[in-house]
Write a structure and sequence with these properties.
binds beta-D-glucopyranose; 8-stranded parallel β-barrel
């Protein structure tokens, strides 16, 4: 374990920001998830007491979690209708960067037919973002795909990767000079496992071989996208966003150490070893730690977030150190945050995460930026709207945004750093 760094300092050009994904905030979409949500909302609501009933905050969340409407993204938080004001909120807070995704199903609602209004929307979106002085970090695939692509078998089929390539070509020819930072695929391992191994997400398959094939096709999709982006503009910096938890042995038994090591490999290296050569930096999403005993994960029960994840923000340091040591690429924290509806722990989470980054830097890790998840409360996939990750809460009846006090603290902290 390394010694604490004495002083918090970050490079001048460090990006301080927040992150979102189209499906979770924009509203009014039609993709493989919106179709699945309508078919599964009732089931998810009925299962909620069994799935989340043991959480300490169950009495607080049960009303939302047992309501089928919670599981339908619908208007989401109408970010599509509010983006100009939303960018102003980020700017006024003092942040300098914003991660968002371009929704493929809007740009290409039917195979080979491009929606000009959607292209114009994103053109204006990026222009307004930059006018506000915010640096765009663009994601090209954040879990959702067009319905027609899903019907063709999605990423289950290698030959379908060409459709994603064509989408990337389109984005590059329309906006390729407008951004520098690109995430090709968000959390490919989570997408392949939740959708094709555990059967939790659309298309709800549970096939080990298929899950492996999807992951390998996502690696190909990333590599081909990187090639297209680099050919357009050498300035563009490309990565995936990997979901990396901190996995640690709970005892000294050889089986525990072996299984912790294996789990780390499975989580990070299985995909990165195939794709890292076409990355210019490494996007890392960090949310929780997993303590391993033998083959099992058993986390301390005393410090869990609203969604039951083990909160150990300080361990971000070790995740960064491991990934940097291994892959030697500068790292951008592309997501990091906590589900905390009463905003009791978010400020603590931010402080500990910032300290962890500072200490990782003192150990030689090169960091590019920190994008907090999330800018706004949003649609949390198969959990729907009940988990609250936002720096800003949203009243979904009026769509009014309100800065949580942790957000104000984050903004003030970034402001102070800028004055140093
Ligand atoms: C995903 C986000 C999600 C967040 C919190 C990440 O795995 O990229 O879309 O909202 O976790 O659940």
């Amino acid at each position: 374990m390394s010694k604490p760094a004495t002083k918090i300092s970050f490079p001048k050009q460090f990006l301080w920001g927040a992150a979102t994904a189209a499906h979770q905030v924009e509203g009014g979409l039609h993709n493989n998830w919106t179709v699945w949500e309508l078919e599964n909302a009732k089931r998810l609501a009925a299962q909620a007491p069994y799935q989340f009933g043991d959480l300490d905050n169950w009495s607080k969340i049960s009303r939302e979690a047992t309501n089928p409407n919670n599981y339908v993204s619908g208007r989401a938080v109408d970010h599509a209708g509010h983006y100009a004001d939303d960018f102003k909120l980020l700017k006024d807070l003092g942040l300098s960067a914003f991660r968002f995704s371009i929704e493929w199903s809007r740009i290409e609602p039917n195979e080979s037919s491009w929606d000009q209004a959607a292209l114009d929307y994103y053109k204006n979106y990026i222009r307004d973002l930059k006018r506000m002085g915010l640096v765009p970090v663009v994601t090209l695939l954040h879990f959702t795909v067009p319905v027609w692509f899903a019907e063709l078998g999605g990423f289950e089929k290698r030959r379908n990767v060409k459709y994603f390539e064509r989408f990337v070509q389109k984005i590059v020819s329309e906006f390729g000079n407008e951004f520098k930072w690109v995430i090709t695929v968000n959390e490919p391992e989570i997408m392949a496992e939740n959708s094709y191994l555990h059967g939790d997400w659309p298309p709800q398959k549970t096939d080990r071989h298929l899950s492996r094939r999807v992951l390998s096709n996502l690696a190909l999709a990333h590599k081909r996208a990187a090639k297209i982006l680099h050919a357009k503009n050498k300035r563009i910096k490309v990565s995936i966003a990997t979901n990396s938890s901190y996995i640690y042995p709970g005892d000294d038994a050889w089986l525990t150490r072996l299984s912790a090591g294996w789990r780390r490999w499975w989580q990070d290296d299985r995909f990165l070893r195939k794709t890292i050569k076409s990355c210019d930096f490494l996007g890392v999403n960090y949310y929780f730690s997993d303590r391993v005993y033998g083959y099992r994960v058993h986390n301390p029960e005393d410090n869990l977030s609203d969604v039951g994840w083990s909160m150990q923000p300080e361990n971000l340091q070790y995740v960064l150190e491991r990934l940097y040591r291994k892959y030697r690429l500068p790292i951008m924290i592309t997501e990091n945050g906590v589900a905390d509806s009463s905003d009791e722990v978010r400020k603590w989470w931010l402080v500990e995460s910032i300290k962890a980054m500072s200490q990782a830097q003192a150990e030689g890790v090169k960091l590019l930026g920190y994008l907090h998840w999330s800018f706004l409360d949003n649609f949390e996939w198969d959990k729907g709207f009940w988990p609250k990750f936002g720096l800003f809460s949203v009243d979904r009846r009026t769509m009014k945004r309100t800065a949580r006090s942790s957000a104000k603290w984050y903004g003030a902290f970034v402001g102070k750093l800028a004055k140093k």
